[in-house]
Amino acid sequence: MLQSMTGFGKAVVTIPTKKITVEIKSLNSKQLDINTRIPAVFREKELDLRNMVSSRLQRGKVDMQIYSEPIGVETTVSLNLPLMAAYKAQVEEMAVALGIPWPEDWYSVLMRFPETVKSELPDTLTDDDIAALHQAVEEALEALVQFRSKEGERLREFFTVRIERIRALLAEVEPYEKERVEKIRARLEENLAKIEGVALDKNRLEQEMIFYIEKLDINEEKQRLSQHLSYFMETMANGEGQGKKLGFISQEMGREINTLGSKSNNAEMQRIVVKMKDELEQIKEQVLNVL
């Protein structure tokens, strides 16, 4: 089953003292790139959390955000005003340097920065806190994987339609092949007949015409393209982790389609080739999202 690199997963785990929320989203990327936003109290577990993510996700640009809310514990919460003032000064400096306007809503901008809210919660983690954190991350990862699988099924259907369209377009080429060769031969003979005062060796001329027409033969390109189409479908059925391979196959398909276009020498065949290229470009665009 194909898997997309695009996905989102969320999990909430509640224990007597905390509610831990984990949100993980991923986009396509050549490698696994993990970005995290973790409360200070959980910072010591960041390496463990990254290892959990990398064990489940092979590729993708992954953003993981973790929120922790106190429950049933009296605590004093205050805004870190000096830090917020420093953030505001830097944003203003950036706006001047880049020539862009200041934010219209300073409150929402400043509250997004880390450590802007201070609370007098214990700085040490309990075993229950760690267990709840790991559970939330595991559940969010599972939700993300399920999301990726659903997107992968959508991509499989998308690719299947495009591959079958290219296969149908390839079949449309056949009626024009014989017509194309006959027109090329007739045009060559007509042009040669216009040359006066030149003795032509009929046998040599026939050999040269056969050689020239054979150079325009597209049977090999048609056969290879058909094989690539079948190989693409087989690769999709082989399971996850096939994104790079599908990308390579689509490149090979593009080479055969381009060669068909350069050899076609026929307006209708050129039109068919253009349609093939359009379908292939849609495949190439979406194959970047396949894991």
TrEMBL record:
Keywords: Coiled coil, Endonuclease, Hydrolase, Nuclease
Stretches assigned to the Endoribonuclease YicC-like N-terminal domain: 2-156
Coiled coil: 178-222
One Gene Ontology term of the molecular function aspect: hydrolase activity
InterPro entries with a match to the protein in the record: YicC-like_C, YicC-like_N, YicC/YloC-like
Domain Endoribonuclease YicC-like C-terminal, residue spans: 174-290
One Pfam family from the record: YicC-like_N
Cofactor names: a divalent metal cation
Family listed: Belongs to the YicC/YloC family.
PANTHER family, per the entry: UPF0701 PROTEIN YICC
Name the UniProt record assigns to this protein: YicC family protein
Species the sequence originates in: Muribaculum intestinale
